[in-house]
Amino acid sequence: MRQLSDDLYLHTILANAPGYPLIWNRFLLELARQLSCDSSALLVTDLNDYGKTRFLFSAHIPKQYQEQYEDKLNRQDHFNRYICQNPRRVVCNQNLRNELPGEHKSVFYPPGQQHFRFGVALACAQNHALSLLLNRKTEFTDTEQQHIGRLLENTLPKLQDAIHKEQRHKINTQLLHHLGDHFDGYIIVDHELNILFSDPIYTAIISQLDCVQISENRFGMKNQAIEQKLLSLMRHNQESSSIHNQCQSCQISLIPIAALKNLYQWECYMDGFILSFTHEKDKNPALERLMRLHSLSRCEAICALHFMRNPSIADIANHTYRSQETVRNHIKHTMQKMNAHSQAELMKKLITLASL
Fold first, then answer.
1. I need a surface site. Which of 9, 47, 221, 292 has the fewest CB within 10 A?
2. pLDDT digits over 200-256, tens only?
3. What region holds the HTH luxR-type domain (predicted)?
4. Best-predicted range by mean pLDDT (53-62, 259-268, 279-288, 314-323)
């Protein structure tokens, strides 16, 4: 029963972690506590250059050590290299002493002389891995190894889901700020239009567009001229903030991932490109009526339509990737422009307008 309770608590923390660094750190603290470890960390590793391994989040690992690790020690961490090359396999370094020959040829200093380690990695994009490491000063007993292995295996699906949501949150918020407007969906592709990252909801929306075709892990345009133009822009690694290309049913924006800011070390897709898609204005008549009849900005109209479906400010902020204060201001301005003296009156006017 205790094992089940511990698992559920960790899963609850993970469910709330995306977008909140302090909750990610809380997850690592709780994981280390439950497994009697001295420290823990989530890392992102470049499989082509282990010198680019970076900390995402950590618990009980001093900042000075993190800087030393990212500067030099990452190249000597053969245990992290091993688990990154064997994703989804839970490993204890006590069982690998004969499988890590390089470990004896270089000097690796773990944090606080915590030489005994557990680890597991998840594949990320094509050339990166995300690894979870647990460290301590004393050896793991056989019973502890079995317990830790079971808990990490049970936690891995929840961890993968939380990491995906974290990536989506970081990219969504940055993309919304970068475009300065809403978008219907996006994918991340490489220079050959292979899909590096996609969200099932967005992929379903994009797949319905008349101008695109998605097969397995590759994106394509039905209009070959537009596809060749996209490929050409990628080959020349365009640095402009966004490049708009008009097709029959939507507006496409091409944005180099490197142009985004504050990705918080999510380097997995730095060489890729975002393709964002937005329906033409006449595809959303309620939005256009609000903007035309009441002089609402697009952002105000979007928040107003979300308000009509669900008046919760927190939910609107979550769905539109805006702060709650921004949403409140948009709703306030909308009430003024629509001459509504209460939120109930605003709701009635919005429902009436949407039914036209």
1. 292
2. 778 877 887 777 888 878 888 887 887 888 888 888 765 544 444 445 556 778 888
3. 293-350
4. 53-62
Gyration radius (Cα) of the chain, Å: 24
- What DSSP string runs through 323-344? -HHHHHHHHHHHHHHTT-SSHH
245, 267, 283 — which closes off a domain? Answer: 283
For tokens 């205790």, the residue is: 2
**Same-domain check for residues 39 and 69:** yes
Joined together, the tokens standing for residue 276 give 């964002």
- Cα separation, 248 vs 314, whole angstroms: 35
Query: 120 vs 289, which has greater pLDDT?
Result: 120
Q: Which residues contact 167 (CB under 8 A, 6 or more apart)?
A: 197, 266, 268
Classify the phi-psi angles of 216: left when phi > 0, otherwise alpha if psi is within -120 to 50, otherwise beta.
Answer: left
Q: Are residues 64 and 149 in the same domain?
A: yes
Three-state secondary structure string covering 68-113: HHHHCHHHHCHHHHHHHHCCCCCEEHHHCCCCCHHHHCCCCCCHHH
Query: So what's the pLDDT on residue 244?
Result: 45
Residue 96, phi then psi, degrees to nearest 5: -120, 15
Question: For position 89, which CATH number holds?
Answer: 3.30.450.80
Residues 155 and 7 in one domain: yes
* Residues 165-190: tens digit of each pLDDT: 888 777 777 777 666 566 778 888 88
Q: Are residues 17 and 145 in the same domain?
A: yes
Q: Is residue 176 part of a domain?
A: no
Contact 122, 160 (CB under 8 A): yes
Ranked by mean pLDDT, the top range of 96-105, 297-306, 322-331 is: 322-331
Distance CA(156)–CA(120), nearest Å, equals: 9
CATH of the domain at 333: 1.10.10
Asked whether residue 81 falls in the same domain as residue 97, the answer is yes
**Neighbouring C-beta atoms of residue 270, cutoff 10 Å:** 15
Q: Which domain, by its residues, includes 320?
A: 285-354
Amino acid, res. 297 = S
Tell me if 173 sits within 8 A of 266, measured CB to CB. no
